[in-house]
């Protein structure tokens, strides 16, 4: 083969160099293309996964609950010196970590170590797997002999009951904001019931368990009574009362079959207190107004809701939304669980996307002449005239578990069945 020199360089060497450069460019192009195809394939595959599940998996990767030491929490809370409040399941303190994150540290208490462990497992097993804008976020926990605690995001505006029943100290909320709070609460409960991989029943929906962030957005909190529910069973079997008087559904007190609709009932009672901006039970008022839900039903039945509005000092601009809320509350507190709507329907009714159906009398079973069952429940309603002293921890009894797994038995974990 003949070669010709150009500037002293053989032509065959130049060809080799060109070929090598071209091969390198081809390899780089192929690698980049393959990487892009793999990325596109991942994006394409993710389209076949429900959006709620994609978000759930991403959140779980990023936000696994942290296990704190007792020393870390003592430092963050300045030795538990800033008290935020206390309830049936624990005492809550404010804490601030070194990075500036404010937290609420709930120190669990109970009558026995077993009781504390049950509270701990109930909250961690539910809150550790839930991620929704309208649920308070669990940052982590501490479980040591000297301290059993849960670490939550700090809600600067406290609980809803503070604003509803202590208006002189809290922010006086208008009905536009109260409607937003009711809607946010409903969305949080609907997520627990209908969007979680395992349905969660809260059992203790009330104003004290609805927390408000810096923008007064609602966050459902306090899962000390909550239970995970498989979707293959119809009822949760209970052996006694559960929840807080005045908010708990009748089936929780009367050893009747229980479903997630018990939370719907509690939400209805919460909605009445939002409408009236008062406790449902107030014996300082006239007899007809002492129990607000009954007063609301009577006015609804007689087409006199405007009189109810005047009695609650509701402005004309809010009358339409309040009337809708009254009708929804009446639907939610129906005596028979199967006649109550599911929470996703409640959300749509509050949004105005669905019309609210006409309601039947939800309290027909509460009065003399309806039998022993009705009589026993009406005593619960009327004989507890000071709801500010009610504590759900005093009213909890262990449910009878219909089914379980060996792992649950090993750790003595109960799972209520829907």
Using brief descriptors, characterize the structure shown.
418 residues; alpha+beta; 6-stranded mixed sheet; two-stranded antiparallel sheet; 41% helix; globular; disordered C terminus
Explained architecture:
The chain has 418 residues and is α+β, with helices and mostly antiparallel strands. It is 41% helix and 12% strand. It contains 14 helices and twelve strands. The protein has helices at 11-46, 51-62, 70-76, 113-127, 160-165, 175-194, 250-253, 261-276, 292-301, 305-311, 319-332, 343-351, 372-383, 406-410; strands at residues 5-6, 9-10, 66-67, 83-87, 90-96, 102-108, 138-144, 147-153, 199-201, 210-212, 218-220, 227-229. Strands 3-7-8-6-5-4 form a six-stranded mixed β-sheet, with helices on both faces. α6 packs antiparallel against α8 and α9 (292-301) packs antiparallel against α10. The chain is globular and about 110 Å long. The N and C termini lie far apart (87 Å).
What string, H for helix and E for strand, traces the elements in order?
EEHHEHEEEHEEHHEEEEHHHHHHHH
Largest sheet: 6 strands, mixed
Number of strands: 12
| Helix percentage | 40-55%
Unreliable sequence segments:
41-46, 368-418
Q: What strand line-up does the widest sheet have?
A: 3-7-8-6-5-4
Tally of alpha and pi helices: 14
Overall geometry comes to globular
Distance between the termini: 87 Å
Question: Strand content of the residues, in percent?
Answer: 5-15%
Classification by helices and strands: alpha+beta
The chain-level mean pLDDT equals 77
User: In angstroms, what is the radius of gyration?
Assistant: 29 Å
Transmembrane segments: 12-31
Family: Belongs to the protein kinase superfamily.
Main location: membrane
Organism: Centaurea solstitialis
């Amino acid at each position: 083969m003949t070669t010709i020199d150009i500037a002293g360089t053989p032509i065959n060497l130049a060809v080799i160099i060109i070929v090598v450069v071209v091969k390198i460019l081809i390899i780089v192009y192929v690698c980049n293309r393959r990487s892009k195809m793999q990325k596109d394939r991942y994006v394409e595959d993710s389209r076949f996964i429900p959006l709620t599940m994609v978000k759930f998996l991403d959140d779980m990767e990023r936000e696994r609950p942290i296990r704190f030491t007792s020393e870390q929490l003592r430092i963050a809370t300045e030795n538990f010196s800033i008290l935020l409040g206390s309830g049936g399941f624990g005492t809550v303190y404010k804490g601030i970590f070194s990075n500036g994150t404010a937290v609420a540290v709930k120190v669990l208490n109970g009558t026995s170590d077993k009781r504390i462990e049950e509270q701990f497992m109930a909250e961690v097993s539910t809150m550790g797997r839930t991620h929704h804008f309208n649920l308070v976020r669990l940052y982590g926990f501490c479980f040591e002999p000297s301290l059993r605690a849960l670490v939550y995001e700090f809600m600067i505006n406290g609980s809803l009951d503070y604003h509803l029943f202590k208006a002189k100290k809290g922010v006086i909320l208008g009905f536009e904001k109260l409607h937003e709070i009711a809607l946010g609460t409903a969305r949080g409960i609907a997520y627990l019931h209908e969007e979680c991989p395992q349905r969660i029943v809260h059992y203790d929906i009330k104003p004290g368990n609805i927390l408000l962030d810096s923008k007064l957005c609602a966050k459902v909190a306090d899962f000390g009574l909550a239970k995970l529910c498989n979707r293959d069973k119809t009822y949760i079997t209970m052996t006694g009362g559960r929840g807080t008087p005045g908010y708990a559904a009748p089936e929780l007190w009367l050893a009747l079959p229980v479903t997630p609709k018990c939370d719907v009932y509690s939400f209805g009672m919460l909605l009445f207190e939002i409408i009236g901006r008062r406790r449902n039970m107030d014996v300082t008022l006239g007899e007809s107004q002492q129990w607000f839900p009954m007063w609301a039903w009577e006015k609804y039945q007689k087409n006199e809701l405007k009189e109810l509005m005047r009695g609650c000092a509701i402005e004309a601009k809010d009358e339409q939304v309040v009337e809708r809320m009254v009708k929804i509350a009446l639907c939610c507190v129906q005596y028979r669980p199967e006649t109550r709507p599911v929470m996703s329907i409640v959300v749509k009714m509050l949004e105005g996307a669905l019309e609210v159906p006409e309601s039947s009398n939800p309290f027909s079973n509460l009065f003399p002449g309806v039998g022993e069952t009705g009589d026993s429940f009406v005593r619960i309603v009327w004989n507890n005239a000071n709801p500010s002293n009610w504590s759900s921890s005093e009213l909890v009894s262990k449910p009878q578990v219909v089914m379980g797994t060996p792992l649950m038995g090993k750790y003595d974990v109960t799972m209520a069945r829907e």
